[in-house]
Amino acid sequence: MERNRNNERLDKTILRTSTNYLLPLLILFSIFLLIRGHYLPGGGFVGGLVASIAFVLHSFAYSPTQTVKMFSIKPFFVIPTGLMLCFLSGMLPTLLGYPFMSGVWFADNVVAIGAFGSALIFDVGVYMVVIGVVLTILFTISENT
Fold first, then answer.
1. Is the pTM here over 0.90, yes or no?
2. Is residue 101 exposed (0-12), middle (13-18) or buried (19+ Cβ within 10 Å)?
3. Facing residues of 117 across strands?
4. At CA 89, angle to CA 80 and CA 34, rounded to 5?
5. Which residues of 31-58 are buried (b: 16+ CB within 10 A; e: fewer)?
6. Helix (H, G, I), strand (E, B) or coil at 45
7. Which parts of the chain sit beneath pLDDT 70?
């Protein structure tokens, strides 16, 4: 019995230590996928899933309560913000005389991103929606158990 407790503590220590290193790396990788997604495979959905997985890993290592404390606002409120960004990225071309959801690219390139346009704004909105939905589901389930 004592041996099982020691193994559980060791397992928890290993998981927490690895989470402390993996969380920032996974977040950076998710941002990389987000930024490169409008040119190559990746984008807001995949980047959002990777970021969500980072927070799910943190909640496994510590607790969902401690993971919630990492956020200044509840993840549920990120969903409408992301949806609004998606809608605005679709409306931007109509303001410039193009059809709804057409790709609009701005003239100047941005360092480390390249061409900046409405596709990236849409991807950021999807990124926020995916993170908000996954974390809202995770925290809702953890509250009820």
1. no
2. middle
3. 105
4. 80
5. eebbbbbbeeebbbbbbbbbbbebbebb
6. helix
7. 1-8, 10, 38-39, 112, 145
